[in-house]
# Entry
Amino acid sequence: ESQLQHQIRDVERNLGVLISGMEGQLQEKFEASQARLLADVQASVIKVSDCLGNERVVREEAMAREVAARREALSEFAASLRAEVAEDLERIEARWQARSREAMREAAERTEEQARCQSEALEAVRRVLGED
# Structure
């Protein structure tokens, strides 16, 4: 019986060593698994952060392109308006010059007509005076 108790103690001791070894291995595996999981979570957080950052950058770039396109469109519109205004001014100036020339021609004709009338009146006065 003492030998049996001795063997039982040996088995218990061996089981304790075996259990302690297994606990150590399990603890190491658990800690390694935890470290891998933490690294995976950190990598995922970085990826999500990068994606959000990239999305923000993409949105900002799209907005910048849209602003540039609108500026270009406004610039083209302004250039078009300036060209139209310049053309209108040229037409207005040409019409004004034509009307001015016409008015000067009419004034010259009236002056000639007045001079002719005055000359005729003067001639008539001379004739009347010459007949006296």
User: Anything to note?
Assistant: The helical segments are 2-131. The radius of gyration is 56 Å. The mean pLDDT is 88. The first helix runs from residue 2 to 131.
